[in-house]
């Protein structure tokens, strides 16, 4: 579909005309005998234009395919090797096809496909290909480098936005009001539990401040923070909330800071919670993914905002570190979110 967009169509028409114009005089320039007649000039000129177009557009297509499947940033050696092999193979095949066309259209002798003839005729083609490939490779590398710089700048903006969103989600009047409300009732009932509540609350706020400058954090630290966060929720919702974590320690995996907290908070925010119909949240790993799953018992009173924004925020952050997709959705009475497990080299 991208080929038929107006800017792309104009580019292909313009480049085709320019290549044909510059290529036409190159044929007679290399072939002295062809300059003896107008017919010879036209014949070799048209063939040269066709050859240049085949080399240019074909190698451009090869370069575009490689750009889509091999990244300069991630696999520069593979990209360079694949580029060299791909352009060379295409050039040889294009030369053979041009000679076959010459035999059919211009009645060239079969000797035109001989090894000696192919070698002699390949010298101009190789020069053309070298020029084309050098240009395409340089363009591809520079565009890749430019995109990398754009992504880096975009990531910086995302990190800043994430810090703000994290602080806004955690250090907000609503969360603090609920926590202090619970604490005020605990003070008169259970002094020990009140002290533990205060400690967990301070752990939550301290962790938020610690990770606000981080792009990733180890999963053990995130789960330790989540334990403090869910403790506060459990005090408020009692038997109406169950959070089960089944992830081995010291796994070496990393996660986006506060991602799990946002998912648990979304589940609590959008579902009915009471002792008769408890909300059960399971956190585990499965086939290279971190899975957060809860039973669905949606609130009907009013629609809460923030779910799609929170999920989009998490997906954007993960998109900088892996090509594996983050998935989420409802299935068989459950809501499930799958985050790619990250294990990056330090």
Describe the structure.
The chain is α+β, with helices and mostly antiparallel strands and 346 residues long. It is 64% helix and 11% strand. It has ten helices and seven strands. A five-stranded mixed sheet has the order 2-4-5-7-6, with helices on one face. Strands 1-3 form a two-stranded antiparallel sheet. Strand 4 and strand 5 form a beta hairpin. It is rod-shaped, with a radius of gyration of 32 Å. The two termini are 40 Å apart. Mean pLDDT is 77; it is low at 1-5.
Gap from first CA to last CA? 40 Å
Main structural class: alpha+beta
Radius of gyration: 32 Å
Number of DSSP E strands: 7
- Shape call: rod-shaped
User: DSSP strand (E) fraction?
Assistant: 5-15%
Secondary structure elements and pairings:
Elements: H1 6-23, H2 26-30, H3 38-69, H4 76-105, H5 115-170, H6 173-187, H7 191-211, E1 217-218, H8 219-237, E2 241-246, E3 254-255, H9 259-270, E4 279-286, E5 289-295, H10 307-319, E6 327-331, E7 334-340
Parallel strand pairs: 2-4
Antiparallel strand pairs: 1-3, 4-5, 5-7, 6-7
Q: What is the structure about, briefly put?
A:
This protein is of the alpha+beta class. Helices cover 64% and strands 11% of the residues.
């Amino acid at each position: 579909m991208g080929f038929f967009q107006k800017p792309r169509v104009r580019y292909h028409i313009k480049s085709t005309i320019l290549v044909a114009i510059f290529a036409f005089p190159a044929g007679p320039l290399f072939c002295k005998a062809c300059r003896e007649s107008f017919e010879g000039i036209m014949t070799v000129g048209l063939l040269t234009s066709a050859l240049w177009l085949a080399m240019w557009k074909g190698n451009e297509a090869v370069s575009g395919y490689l750009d889509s499947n091999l990244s300069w940033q991630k696999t520069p050696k593979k990209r360079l090797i694949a580029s060299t092999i791909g352009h060379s193979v295409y050039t040889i095949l294009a030369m053979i096809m041009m000679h076959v066309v010459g035999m059919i259209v211009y009645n060239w002798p079969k000797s035109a496909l001989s090894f000696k003839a192919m070698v002699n005729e390949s010298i101009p083609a190789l020069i053309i290909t070298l020029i084309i490939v050098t240009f395409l490779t340089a363009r591809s590398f520079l565009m890749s480098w430019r995109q990398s710089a754009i992504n880096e700048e975009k990531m910086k903006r995302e990190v800043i936005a994430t810090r703000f969103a994290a602080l806004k989600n955690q250090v907000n009047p609503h969360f603090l009001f609920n926590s202090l409300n619970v604490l005020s009732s605990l003070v008169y009932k259970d002094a020990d539990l009140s002290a533990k509540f205060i400690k967990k609350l301070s752990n939550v706020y301290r962790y938020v401040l610690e990770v606000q400058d981080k792009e990733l954090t180890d999963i053990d630290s995130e789960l330790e923070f989540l334990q403090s966060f869910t403790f506060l929720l459990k005090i408020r919702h009692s038997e109406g909330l169950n959070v089960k974590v089944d992830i081995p320690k010291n796994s070496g995996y990393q996660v986006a800071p506060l991602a799990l907290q946002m998912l648990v908070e979304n589940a609590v925010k959008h579902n009915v919670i009471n002792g008769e119909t408890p909300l059960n949240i399971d956190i585990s790993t499965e086939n290279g993914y971190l899975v957060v799953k809860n039973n669905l018992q949606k609130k009907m009173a009013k629609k809460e905002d923030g779910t799609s924004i929170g999920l989009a925020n998490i997906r954007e952050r993960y998109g900088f570190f892996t090509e594996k997709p983050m998935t989420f959705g409802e299935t068989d009475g459950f809501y499930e979110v799958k985050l790619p497990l990250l294990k990056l080299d330090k």
